[in-house]
């Protein structure tokens, strides 16, 4: 993983007014990077979202709904890997893995 980008600092003198006159006060000004660094991905291993036996699409939809999973991975009877994904509107989307 790459080191975080170094922050640039610059000393700026700011004039302040007091009873005698103006006096320069040193102040640090920070310049932050234009993009934020990417966070490490959070990996969750779950056996509950993967079917162990081959099943039809209808069986997989019922199983995903029963297990209350947003993502469900299964194989059809031909051995093809497939992923069911529940969209925000509640509809299930089928993704065939090549």
Summarize the structure.
The protein has 98 residues and is mostly beta strands. It has one helix at residues 57-67, and strands at residues 8-17, 22-31, 71-75, 81-86, 92-96. The model has no long low-confidence stretch (mean pLDDT 77).
Please describe what this structure looks like.
By secondary structure, the chain is mainly beta. Helices cover 11% and strands 37% of the residues. The chain has one helix and five strands. The protein has one helix at residues 57-67, and strands at 8-17, 22-31, 71-75, 81-86, 92-96. A hairpin with a 5-residue loop joins strand 3 (71-75) and strand 4. The longest helix has 11 residues, at 57-67.
How are the SSEs ordered, and which strands pair?
Blueprint: E1 8-17, E2 22-31, H1 57-67, E3 71-75, E4 81-86, E5 92-96
Antiparallel strand pairs: 1-2, 3-4, 4-5
Mean pLDDT, to the nearest integer, reads 77
How many strands in all?
5
- Beta-strand fraction estimate: 35-45%
From the alpha carbons, calculate the radius of gyration and give it in angstroms.
28 Å
The strand order across the widest sheet is: 3-4-5
Question: What fraction, in percent, of the residue positions are helical?
Answer: 10-25%
Count of helical stretches? 1
Any idea what the shape is?
rod-shaped
Oligomer: single chain
Distance between the termini: 30 Å
The stretches of 5 or more residues where confidence is low (pLDDT under 50) are none
Encode the helix/strand succession as letters.
EEHEEE
Q: Summarize the biggest pleated sheet.
A: 3 strands, antiparallel
